[in-house]
Amino acid sequence: ARVRMAGRGAWGSRLSGVCVLLVCAWPASCLYEDQAGKVDWSRANVGRAAFALFPSAQREAVVASADGVVAGLDIQTGVTSWRRVLPDGEAVGRMISVGDDLLVTLGTARTASGTVGSVRMWSVGGALLWDAMLPEVGAGRSPAVAVGEGAIFVGSGTTVVAFHAATGEELWRWHAPTDKGGNAVIVQLAAKRTEAGGIASLHTYVIQERAGSTSRVLLTASLAPTDGKQLDKHELRHGDALAPTAEVQFVLTSDATKVMTLSVQSPTTILVHTLGSSKLEAVSLSTVWPSEAASPIVLLANSLPSAAALRAADGTLALISFTRAGTVPTLVRSFSPQAGAQAFSSASLAESAIAAVATADSSGQVTLMTLKLRADGSADGEWSATQPCGIATSDVAHGFEFWLNAYARKDGSYGSRLLISSVGDALQLMRPSTDAAQPVWVREESLASVTAATMVPLPAVPIDVDEGRPFFGLALPSIIEGIQEKVAMLRLSAEEAATKKKIQTMLGDAYGTRQVVLATTAASKLIAIHSATGEILWTYFVAPLALGAPPPTIRATFVDGSGAKATLIMLAADDARYAVLTLNPFSGAVLARRDEAKSLLHAAQLPHTHISSHRVLYLVDSQLQVAVHPDTPAARNELAANLQTTYFHLVSPTEVQGFGLLSATDGVAAARATERWAIALPPGSRSKLSYFPHSAAVHSPTRTKGDRTVLHKYINRNLVAIASEVDTAPGGEPYVQVMLLDSVAGRVLYTTRHSASTGPISILLGENTILYSYTSSTTAQPTLTSAELFVNSSAADDPLSLLLAGPMDTSLRKNQFDAFAAAPPKVQSQSYAYATAVSALGITLTHKGITPRQILVGTAAGHLLAYDARLFDPRRPFVHPSKMTAQDKEEGLVPYNPSLGGINSLQVISHRNTVARPRTIVTAPTMLESTSLVFAFGLDLFLTRATPARTFDMLGEDFNKVGLFGATTAMAIATVVSGWYVSRKELAAAWA
Amino acid sequence: AGMAARCLCLLLGLLGGLQAERLEGVLHAEGSLMGITVVLNSGAYSAVPRQDGSFVFHEVPEGNFLMEVYDTQRAWPMVRVEVGKTVPNGVTAVQMHNRQKLQMPMQIKPVLAKQDFFEKRQGFQWSSLLMNPMMIMMLITGGIMFIMPKMMANMDPEELKKMQEMQAAQGSLSFSDLLNPEKLKEKQAQAQLEAKKSKKAKQ
């Protein structure tokens, strides 16, 4: 009866208490080995391909991405054969093959002491043979490289280092001459070959900037390959004609005789240096492009024999060659642009080279034209006829790049394959063939750059279509129906059965675990993934909103309606315009599109009303004018009705700004926004934000303690938790600041500061809890701090008052939460040492919010762990376990321990999978109260089901059905037999 | 040459006013080392193990570091590393779990060579079937059914008669009667009759 006093809240607590007991009764993890892969799936990505090689020893394509991943992909299937994820902050800037079975990646690595150059030598099977770090490289440049004589020569910053190709042992170092106070950067290395194939001399190209002068000098020095002794040095003219050091690009011909770069001065000229000479020739391109209309002209990085590839702004492509005698270029072949997107690639084939141009038309149909170049740079024949390669993903029509894999056939001809990376980051392999319909394989690498994800339950036909019959009917009819269906399935042919199965996977299940994960990516692509299988259902690439505009960013997605009638509203925006797209979340079909030539600032949904079946969206542009979507009088009225209670906020690196809405004065816009408040974030900080989802269920406003008294939770749906990592000026101490903000009133409700602490930070806001992670800068100890928010309540909770007052009328203003007047929360917090660095935090969400929550932790190592939320309860008592009070024990509190201990493998819900570089953990409820879907994304994706209190609302998979059946049957038999036995006995007794 | 490089690194570091150490170690584990990264201070400095398990942090400045091995398949020890001029040989490394000092290059073995992520599924057991409450109930009922008549048979005939009379007076129903509705009605009618009779007798 005392529990009842607290009203409904206490009832919830009692229920939760039952669940806590359930948690206590079983270990944390509930996954058996045979379940792995049935309720979860993972996807290992590579990221946007930046380089690709086709080692001849393997039937693999080796791809390096800008995200710092090197991977071998099976050329037949596209399956990852091996993958190496480089440390965070390391980028691959160049990849070259050495011989048949080795490759070198060069790039930059970020360490705590600064950016350094990195060189790694790999086997084509993905084994690292050796690695080295080099002094700081010049402004964003990757180190320059040359290979030969069993050595790898790398130029980085002002140093050239020679490494032994097999062992990585440093052979020698050479330092570029620098002026005092001046700046010098090695931009290119070239190895001049001898007739026998060895290296005659190593040529380095250094750009020098003299102190106090803007003029630049290009130096070339030749070094002895064996000991790094400087043989000669020349100062080349035209240094001022070079592009800025960070952008200047030198191209070495594949026969290593000439180094070329473009002059930035007008008219466009190409600067050519023949290895060993003391002059830099400036050759006008007027013979190739008579007019300047085609500028700017770009020198393509492809290495061709005695030739270079240039592309003009209009898409015209020209191949020019240099005869050996002089450097006057001759136009070898040109290629005029066609409708659609084009890309150029080349591949070497024995002594010659193949140049290729691929064109994609608006439907995604890819065609290829190739040209064979002889060793002297002249063309061997004309451009080949256009060869169709099939239809690629639709985004190739908006731009792509490709790598050509040319191979010689036995009959002397050559074949080719194209590895295409589209603007929407779809990596696909195509082959020229007259009957090719689609790519050999496609990998959606944009999934490495997922920015946000929402989950929409798949519609279940019995619920949404056949509304006359309840879905959860009596067991018998469903069993009969199931058997009938099974029989019907057996009668179908294999093909029909496959189609039927496909249709069925697109239908929801009774438990709501089948959902569509709608992932927005940084590559302007929206990807729908099936939550149960991990299969990609559809992709939608948002094309540039205007001709020549940059790719738009998908700013937000909103789900409207439910079941089969659910629609997805997607907002894509660039700097000057935005589009509102309405899509079917299950098929990806575009239902409506609205384009506006305004810069979008913010968009949000208005609360659900009973007036219209659709939720109204309001859109704020950079002029603070507010529009509604759909733009109807009804929607405008709805906005007008919500004007007083609608607030939004914007977050920039320096501040958080709050806005309110006012009625429009001009009559064109639906309303206008006005700034209400602004709160500055610490200067020079990096911040992370967390919100508790608006749709998430909160079951109880109270928490019952062991002595039956009640704590009132501070539940404020406007809360924003902001964690900032602040690097103070050199000499100062870095700190981490956490701020809790009411996003309506702009009030700072709670703020705390952890001195001598640094990132990486992550933060999680629960219904009335905050959890955040940071690292101590002195001990390097990763730490988690949790805080729980409570509030004083004057509401009477004795039985008489509750009886007299009756249920609370929440429509009354006085019973509602007032952001401006509510008292700030009482905060209780505790900190714990954690075993490893935390990259992402998440919390399970269930249908009604009754089930106790689990805290999900994504570690930098790639584990996804689930912890009982009680471990992060700030009320954990500071006593020895043996001295716990009975009340604390009853409440289910765990005695405080400053450390959360090591990683218990049973808590790793990602089990054998690695979730590389996790960024965010998104959770969604299912129809089962016990189960929550957990989707973790970063470089990799991982989706599983979390059951914090086990599946208490459904029979366990290991339930002994045979035992139950056996026991029931035995009981029935025993009943009949005993009845018969007794009646016989009675009869016998009667006769007696 | 490795030594020379190290000296050169040191020399360069000293010239620049900073001491930078080269930290080397070897991971001893069976199986692939593909997904492993070794980090200092949660990624301030990182190293990728080579084919033979060896790894190198190329230039580590003076300071205290916590070295971790990021591996999802095995559990590795954490190592406290101190780099500085005051430390003997420039570097000390201590394994956190057993306070064992490591010599350079560090030889590191996993604490757990294979992590067990799954719960053990309990197979079918007769004992669990027998301990099933329903089974226990059934066995006890069965037992009573067969033991009771035997007990009745061994009873004193007089006492038995007395008990039967008592039962008849209470109009008690046996379990088998409950299953037979006609017999049940009959018995109930009989009980009522007897009740009436006894009432009359009292009057």
TrEMBL record, chain A:
Subcellular location: Endoplasmic reticulum membrane
This protein's UniProt keywords: Endoplasmic reticulum, Glycoprotein, Membrane, Signal, Transmembrane, Transmembrane helix
Residue ranges constituting the ER membrane protein complex subunit 1 C-terminal domain according to the UniProt record: 767-991
Top-level taxon of the source organism: Eukaryota
Signal peptide: 1-30
GO BP annotations, alphabetical order: protein folding in endoplasmic reticulum
One GO location term (cellular component): EMC complex
Pfam families tied to this protein: Beta-prop_EMC1_N (PF25293), EMC1_C (PF07774)
Transmembrane segments: 964-982
Main subcellular localisation: endoplasmic reticulum
Membrane topology term: Single-pass type I membrane protein
Positions of the EMC1 first beta-propeller domain: 31-445
UniProt record similarity statement: Belongs to the EMC1 family.
Binding partners and assembly: Component of the ER membrane protein complex (EMC).
The name this protein goes by in its record: ER membrane protein complex subunit 1
Species annotation: Strombidinopsis acuminata
Lineage summary: Eukaryota, Sar, Alveolata, Ciliophora, Intramacronucleata
TrEMBL record, chain B:
Protein's cellular compartments: Membrane
N-terminal signal peptide: 1-20
Transmembrane segments: 134-153
InterPro entries the record matches: Beta_sandwich_EMC7, EMC7
GO CC, any one term: EMC complex
Residue span(s) of domain ER membrane protein complex subunit 7 beta-sandwich: 34-137
Topology of this chain in the membrane: Single-pass membrane protein
Keywords in alphabetical order: Membrane, Signal, Transmembrane, Transmembrane helix
Keyword Membrane (UniProt): yes
Domain of life: Eukaryota
The protein, known as: ER membrane protein complex subunit 7 beta-sandwich domain-containing protein
